[in-house]
């Protein structure tokens, strides 16, 4: 009797224990079900989807829109100043400037639209871009074309100013609008040929990290000779244009400085000699002022081009010589490309900010402030 009671009690306890374990397992099951999908989600991918891609998409949209507005504004200002440039016989420089701004504008609209399209494809998980697609080949060709055009046009502007300052009579008699149009056509054709060479040599433009732009094959360790030669040609041509622009600007600056020192010495002559050359000084004052204005603009453009483009061009040159394809090299390529893209944004602001009217207001403001400070110090000493 007692044994049966004990067995029944032990059975109850066993049933109670089993029921409690089943309830515990059932209560624990939802939390385990909630934790099961977590390992399938890559935290780094989630971070990339929420931060990196939107930021890259926003940066591409900002650079395209802001660069387009800046170039259109600079073109409008140049059209307004066309009469002044024509009166001063500076039409060749004006035409080269318009060609440069048009190349910058096209570089924002066409490759920028391709980059925005690829960013949208990544955000909405559309079909991934393939290297053999027509879009990638077109994107890579436009990157090469609109990358070389501003560098070549900037070099042509430096050569034109150097000839105009060092050989003014030759420039006035020989450099015509037709010559400038032919030079623009020749340089554009050179950039176009460079962009089409990969199709001639049966090579292809490839997708570059982070799969949002296409360019020449510059990262693979075992590249073919044609790929290496094309990348080297792009880099050497761009660096040569930058170096030649700097040399022409230095020569033009030295000639202008020599002329300014010569004119200051004329002012120190006796009145008789000064009267003989007064008309010459008056007639050449506006010439020197306009030349200084254009030289300031050209010097700033060249400095901006060197700062923005040199890292990208030198990086390509070093990678082709070393045949390196590490992840660090790809990150450096992306950073240097973003620096190069800012060249097309800063170019129009040179013409917006470094105009004669703006420079005159700044100089007058500085002179007025300095004059006020001098007068205040003088009055303080007197009192």
Automatic annotation (TrEMBL):
Keyword list, A-Z: Cell membrane, Disulfide bond, G-protein coupled receptor, Glycoprotein, Membrane, Phosphoprotein, Receptor, Transducer, Transmembrane, Transmembrane helix
Domain G-protein coupled receptors family 1 profile, first and last residues per copy: 70-351
GO MF: prostaglandin E receptor activity; thromboxane receptor activity
Pfam families: 7tm_1
InterPro entries on file: GPCR_Rhodpsn (IPR000276), GPCR_Rhodpsn_7TM (IPR017452), Prostanoid_rcpt (IPR008365), Thbox_rcpt (IPR001105)
One term under GO cellular component: plasma membrane
Source taxon at top rank: Eukaryota
Localization per Swiss-Prot or TrEMBL: Cell membrane
Transmembrane parts of this sequence: 57-79, 91-118, 138-159, 180-201, 230-257, 298-318
Membrane topology according to the record: Multi-pass membrane protein
GO biological process: adenylate cyclase-activating G protein-coupled receptor signaling pathway; inflammatory response; positive regulation of cytosolic calcium ion concentration
PROSITE patterns from the UniProt entry: G_PROTEIN_RECEP_F1_1 (PS00237), G_PROTEIN_RECEP_F1_2 (PS50262)
PANTHER family in UniProt: G-PROTEIN COUPLED RECEPTOR FAMILY 1 MEMBER, THROMBOXANE A2 RECEPTOR
Protein name: Thromboxane A2 receptor
Organism listed in the record: Parambassis ranga (Indian glassy fish)
Gene that this sequence comes from: ptger1c
């Amino acid at each position: 009797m007692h044994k049966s009671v004990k067995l029944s009690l032990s059975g109850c306890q066993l049933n109670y224990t089993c029921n409690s374990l089943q309830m515990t397992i059932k209560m624990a099951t939802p939390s385990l079900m909630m934790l099961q999908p977590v390992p399938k989600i890559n935290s780094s991918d989630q971070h990339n989807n929420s931060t990196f891609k939107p930021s890259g998409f926003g940066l591409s949209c900002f650079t395209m829109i802001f660069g387009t507005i800046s170039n259109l504004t600079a073109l409008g200002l140049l059209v307004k100043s066309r009469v002044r440039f024509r009166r001063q016989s500076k039409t060749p420089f004006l035409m080269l400037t318009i060609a440069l701004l048009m190349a910058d504008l096209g570089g924002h609209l066409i490759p920028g639209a391709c980059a925005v399209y690829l960013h949208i494809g990544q955000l909405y998980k559309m079909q991934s871009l393939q290297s053999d697609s027509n879009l990638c080949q077109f994107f890579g060709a436009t990157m090469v074309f609109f990358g070389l055009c501003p560098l070549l046009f900037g070099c042509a502007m430096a050569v034109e100013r150097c000839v105009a300052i060092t050989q003014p009579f030759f420039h006035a008699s020989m450099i015509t609008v037709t010559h400038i149009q032919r030079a623009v056509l020749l340089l554009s054709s050179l950039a176009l040929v460079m962009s089409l060479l990969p199709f001639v040599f049966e090579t292809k433009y490839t997708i570059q990290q982070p799969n949002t732009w296409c360019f020449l094959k510059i990262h693979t360790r075992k590249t073919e000779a044609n790929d290496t030669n094309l990348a080297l040609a792009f880099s050497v041509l761009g660096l040569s244009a930058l170096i030649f622009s700097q040399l022409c600007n230095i020569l033009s600056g030295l000639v202008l400085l020599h002329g300014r020192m010569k004119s200051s010495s004329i002012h120190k002559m006796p009145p008789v000699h000064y009267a003989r050359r007064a008309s010459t000084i008056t007639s050449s004052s506006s010439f020197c002022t306009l030349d200084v204005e254009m030289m300031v603009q050209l010097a700033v453009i060249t400095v901006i081009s060197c700062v923005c483009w040199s890292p990208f061009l030198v990086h390509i040159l070093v990678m082709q010589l070393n045949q390196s394809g590490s992840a660090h090299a790809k990150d450096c390529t992306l950073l240097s490309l973003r620096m190069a893209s800012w060249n097309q944004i800063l170019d129009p602001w040179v013409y917006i900010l470094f105009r004669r009217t703006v420079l005159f207001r700044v100089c007058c403001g500085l002179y007025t402030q300095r004059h006020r400070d001098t007068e205040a110090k003088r009055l303080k000493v007197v009192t």
